[in-house]
Each structure stands twice: as structure tokens, then as C-alpha cells.
Specification:
Blueprint lengths: L7 E5 L4 H12 L3 E6 L2 H11 L2 E4 L5 H15 L4 E4 L14 H22 L7 E6 L12 H21 L4 E8 L18 H13 L10 H12 L10 E4 L11
Parallel strand pairs: 1-2, 1-4, 2-3, 4-5, 5-6, 6-7
Helix pairs in contact: 1-7, 3-4, 4-5
Bound molecules: nicotinamide-adenine-dinucleotide.
Nicotinamide-adenine-dinucleotide binds next to helix 1.
């Protein structure tokens, strides 16, 4: 028996990275998975490989959300889980950040989560689960990613309020806060067909050895297991909480 037998779950940003691993794991655990992304080619290929449904969805577009949920309901009859995973990262000092750049990160990371909650929760009359992807930077600051950190702090606020407002509908809402995870977002070399992914992973591990107590970067499969926990009955008494998965990075600093 799978942990998600009989469940229908939408995963945004599912074409690669953490979303890909969430889609793979959820499907392996028995869920019908709706893979939503703007990267149509890899998204469709992955959906075909694992036996899911791919939908084109820009998470910042409200009409796209309605279409995606309608497609899920046509294919599987209902929706009872959502992982708001899609996100973008931009590097800039706050004083150098153009307003357009700030607003684009807000549109995807923050508005995308809001529209997911707003559109999907009313379509889950039997209850369900929502997992919002925040970040380590949703709980602390990080220079050079101020726009991103601001949106991830906002995702935690949204998560707590959604949990309060949706509890009586038996919808649990939690957030995951990954530290550095080896996906194209943190390791763009993964998108380079000429690069050796294992070599770039080792280089990332070396970079994080000094910063992260567990001495390495995280793997998207590890984040997927946390998303599975929060989407399954294993977390049946948990709502409104941020879950840090960062190898101990946020625990504090060492002085020796
Ligand atoms: P990634 O860049 O590999 O994957 C992000 C996915 O989101 C891509 O498939 C992309 O096409 C999709 N996406 C981007 N904009 C979209 C939009 N407007 N509509 C729909 N899909 C869109 O990155 P990842 O590391 O897998 O990131 C997944 C989530 O985890 C993000 O929310 C990210 O902020 C968060 N996160 C990542 C890390 C990390 O170190 N990788 C750390 C903390 C949090």
C-alpha cells in the first residue's frame, strides 16, 4: 500500500528539481499526480514517464489555475492535495533591484502560492492538504537574495493564515523551508549538458561543508520525502507549521 493511495495531488514547478522528485515519489506512493509547470517539454515527458497528467500553468496567472484544476477534475474526478513548489530566485542587492524584478519574484513565489490556495481549497470539499514551499530564507535573512527572502517570509504568513482559515474544512496547510538543495536553482550547472552532474554536486558539497553542520548540500529527493510526510496521513495532526530541512544550517553558527 502506498501512503497516497487514492489521492489526487497537483505539484507546481514539477518539470524539474524538487517538484520533479515530489511528482515521482507521490506517484510511486499511489497518488494521481498533476504536474504543472511552464516548461512544457520536460514536464510532458516526465508526466508520460510516471503516468501523470501535465498541465501548462504559470502560477502567477489566476485563469491558468482555474484551467489546471478543471483539467485535474476532468482526468481524476477531484483534487485533494496541492504542493505549491514553483519558485524563482534572483540575485541582487535590494538597492540595485529594479521594481520589475521585485514584482516578478513576488508574482511567482508569493502570488503563485496565494492563487494556489485560493483556487484549490474550495475544490477540496472532502478536505485535503496544501504544502507551500518557502525556504531557509523564509526564516532568516540572506544578503543578495532580498526579494526572494521577502517572498518566502510572506509564504510562511500565508501558510499560517490559510491553516487557521481552512482547518474547519479539514484542509491542513504546512510549509517546507529547504536550505541549499542540489537543483538547477542552486546548481545551474545541472542545466549544462556538457557538465558532469556528480562533479558539480561535489563542488556544491565542498562549498557548504563549512556552512552546514551536516556538511553537504541537500538532495531534492530528501525534500520530496518531507513533502510526502506533510501530504500523507502521517502528519494528520499537523497544520500551520514551517518545516526546516537544511542540514542544520539554521541551528546556529560555530565559533571554532
Ligand atoms: P528549479 O529552478 O530547479 O525548479 C523550479 C521549477 O519551477 C521549474 O520547473 C520552473 O520551470 C518552475 N517555475 C518557475 N516559474 C514558474 C511559474 N511562473 N509557473 C509555474 N512553474 C514555474 O528549483 P527548485 O530548487 O526545484 O525549487 C523548487 C522550490 O524550492 C522553489 O519554490 C524554490 O524557491 C524552493 N527552494 C529551493 C532551494 C534550493 O536550494 N534549490 C532552497 C529553498 C527553497
Amino acid at each position: 500500500m502506498g501512503k497516497l493511495d487514492g489521492r489526487v495531488v497537483i505539484v507546481t514547478g514539477a518539470a524539474r528539481g524538487q517538484g520533479e522528485q515530489e511528482a515521482r515519489l507521490f506517484r510511486a506512493e499511489g497518488a494521481e499526480v498533476v504536474l504543472a509547470d511552464v516548461l512544457d517539454e520536460p514536464g510532458e515527458a516526465l508526466a508520460k514517464e510516471i503516468g501523470g497528467l501535465y498541465v501548462h500553468l504559470d502560477v502567477g496567472e489566476e485563469s491558468g489555475w482555474r484551467d489546471a484544476v478543471a483539467a485535474a477534475e476532468r482526468a481524476y474526478g477531484r483534487v485533494d492535495g496541492l504542493v505549491n513548489n514553483a519558485g524563482i530566485l534572483r540575485f541582487n542587492a535590494l538597492v540595485d533591484t529594479p521594481l520589475e524584478e521585485f514584482m516578478e519574484v513576488v508574482r511567482v513565489n508569493q502570488v503563485g502560492c496565494f492563487l494556489g490556495v485560493k483556487t484549490v481549497a474550495p475544490r477540496m470539499p472532502q478536505g485535503g492538504t496544501i504544502v507551500n514551499t518557502a525556504s531557509y530564507t523564509g526564516l532568516t535573512g540572506m544578503a543578495a537574495v532580498g526579494t526572494y527572502a521577502a517572498t518566502k517570509h510572506a509564504v510562511l504568513g500565508l501558510t499560517r493564515v490559510a491553516a487557521l482559515e481552512l482547518a474547519d474544512r479539514r484542509i491542513r496547510v504546512n510549509a517546507i523551508c529547504p536550505g541549499a538543495i542540489d537543483t538547477p536553482m542552486s546548481n545551474p550547472a545541472r542545466l549544462d549538458p556538457d557538465a558532469d552532474p556528480e562533479e558539480t554536486a561535489r563542488a556544491l558539497d565542498a562549498l557548504y561543508r563549512k556552512l552546514v553542520p551536516l556538511g553537504r548540500v541537500g538532495r531534492p529527493e530528501e525534500v520530496a520525502r518531507l513533502a510526502l510526510f506533510l501530504t500523507s496521513e502521517d502528519s494528520s495532526y499537523i497544520t500551520g507549521q514551517p518545516f526546516v530541512i537544511d542540514g542544520g544550517w539554521l541551528a546556529g553558527v560555530g565559533v571554532v
